[in-house]
Amino acid sequence: MTKDILVAGNWKSNKTLSQAEDFFRVFSEKIKGESLPQNLTAVVFPSLIHLEKARFLINDYRLPLKLGAQNLSARQEGAFTGEVAASQLSDLVEYILIGHSERRKNYAEDDEILAQKSDRAIEAGLKIIYCVSDKNDRVPDGVDIVAYEPVWAIGTGKAATAQEAEETASAIKSKHPKVSRILYGGSVNPDNIVEFLKMPTIGGVLPGKTSLDPDQFFRMLKNAAE
Ligand code: PGA
To answer: What range does the record give for the signal peptide (predicted)?
Structure first.
């Protein structure tokens, strides 16, 4: 495929340190020092505690992978026990996930908190992947990449059809013309990835479960590259 594509693997709250290390080792055996086509960017989002090791292994194995974080503090650095500030993350990662439906639902993150998190990420120069589950969801100013993820398709094995995803992606794009890229997420796998990427408004995908497995993640990249 010739257009620019982003494949972003959201590991969620999965993998011990040794399982995370295994992922990079096995992935490096699959990719065998090859690079990805220039138009294809691959990002993985491990747990915060594994980011530093992930960065080390990506460099050590010379993997064509970028790093992202799944969460950040809505506040700046300071006396906020347990929080990780955007300025701390920007040492380690290029991308940040904000607005995932699991955080909206389980941690009561509303539009106000998500806007604060987006502001912190922008101040720190992080690239935001801002998740929405509906075309009418709010998107904060300054967000560059939006991921459309219908809640019923997340973790269910039942992806939206490529046409449904394209319709919503194009509605989001017309509402937010400054957003440069729209991803689709929700049960993306090596078999259906290409259908989504063929759609004119969809510039990438956000797989969860299938990104945990180095073989499936590699196959998604391989199919996306063709
Ligand atoms: P899934 O998750 O691929 O496991 O459906 C996607 C996501 O939640 O980002």
So the answer is: none
The predicted pLDDT at position 34 comes to 86
Average pLDDT of the chain is 97
Q: Residue 43 in 3-state DSSP?
A: strand
Report the distance separating Cα 200 and Cα 107, nearest Å. Answer: 34
Least Cα distance to 9 among 153, 204, 181 occurs for: 204
Return the ligand 1 atom nearest residue 12 CA. 8
Total count of domains within the chain: 1
176 is catalytic: no
Please state the pTM of the whole predicted model. 0.97
Residue nearest to atom 7 of ligand 1 (CA): 208
Pick the catalytic residue from 50, 100, 109, 166.
100
Question: By three-state DSSP, how is residue 178 classified?
Answer: coil
Question: What's the CA-to-centroid distance between 149 and ligand 1, angstroms?
Answer: 8
Identify how many contiguous H helices and E strands the chain contains and give both numbers: 8, 8
Q: Could you report the per-residue pLDDT of 117-147, keeping only the tens digit for each?
A: 999 999 999 999 999 999 999 999 999 999 9
Domain harbouring 84, CATH code:
3.20.20.70
Residue-range definition of the domain harbouring residue 88: 5-225
Q: Which residue's C-alpha comes closest to atom 9 of ligand 1?
A: 208
